[in-house]
Amino acid sequence: MKTDNKPWFWIPLLNFASGFPYVIIISVSVLMYKNLGISNEDIGLYTSLLYLPWVIKPLWSPFIELHGTKRKWFLSMQLFISIAFLIVGFIIPTSQFFILSLAVFWVAAFASASNDVASDGFYLLALTKDQQSFFLGIRSTFYRASMLTGNGLIILLAGYLEHLYGDNQKAWSYTMIFVGLVMSILTIYNYFATPKTELPIKAGETEEKNFATVFASFFKKKQIGLTLAFILLFRLGESQLLKMLTPFLVDKTDVGGLGLETEDVGIIYGTFGLIALTVGGILGGIAISKQGLGKWMLPMILTMHLPIIGFILLAHFHPASVYYIYAVVILEQFGYGFGFAAFMMYLIYVAEGESKTSHYAIATGFMALGMMLPGMLSGYIQEYLGYGNFFIWVLTATIPGLILSRFLIYPKDFGKKVE
Hints:
The protein is mainly alpha-helical. The protein has one domain: MFS general substrate transporter like domains (Growth Hormone, Chain: A, Up-down Bundle). The chain contains 18 helices and no strands. The protein has helices at 7-35, 40-49, 52-56, 61-66, 70-91, 97-126, 129-165, 168-193, 211-218, 224-234, 236-250, 262-270, 272-291, 293-305, 308-317, 322-350, 356-396, 399-405. Helix 15 (308-317) runs parallel beside helix 17 (356-396). The longest helix has 41 residues, at 356-396. The radius of gyration is 21 Å and the shape is globular.
């Protein structure tokens, strides 16, 4: 299959293979542990610690940039992740499944973070800036679609198996084995679909680089203090929402949850949620490519965060009809797909210049730190506040990032397609 210069062949599933292990490790594991009897406090704490590899990935990103090709790196890491998920599947039926599966997820998280570094670098090197802007929506959509596949179809499968066998351990064991096989198929496809060559180093960029210079150069960028504060705080609310949203949906009504079955969660996110996300992501990328980041930064941030109001209403009124839940999820997923494009485009701007692979990894590492720390406390905050007040707190936590965004300096037409 000749796919050079045909990004449509490789961008969708390369980014799907980047997001899929992330959602399994960070998100699907939440419901898995919930259904296997682990408490909200332990789930929030220990699954948030799995963010750490994404936080510290800048420490080894220069090594990935300076040794080997990005293609070899992401293919090797995807194969490793496939094997890790298969191992988790065989671990779940054991008496020490919690500790052992966390350990394997931890190792897989390092491989997944390395896969992200290589995949991001490949995207930045293989495409022109016009293409980067145009495909940003497609890229983020398929990345997020992989998350909805995990939170939708994979959870739907697990719920079906739970009812089929009446044994949650067996159900999740088979589910994780299936996840490992899916990851293997993605790896094989990316082996054949991705271009076999990367752009050569341009003249004047051949001087020897090392870890220290690559890392230090990032912190010499303009507005770096404000930039890092924005990256850390932008997802302050979302980081807590993502950890406690699934427990909210499946917890019994007597403890403030909605009492949904596992399959219900899978159906909601795997159908209408996926469609809404896809539409939002595509429109977000198109909007920026037509009018630039400056025009869309504020509207996209608001579109992303305001749907949290829907979860506040669900937590307070507990509607009997599932259609209200569908409506809130559709709005939240569309808002996420549309709004997150602005944040990712800003990270691309931050990474501009030499060593863009490493600098993008550093930026996303700080983003992961902003997800990990609040997520670790989310279970305790939710238990203290209750679901209704917790979602009010989550909405309030989005305000600092919104305020900081107004002070960022960047070209207003950044990301706009050059006619």
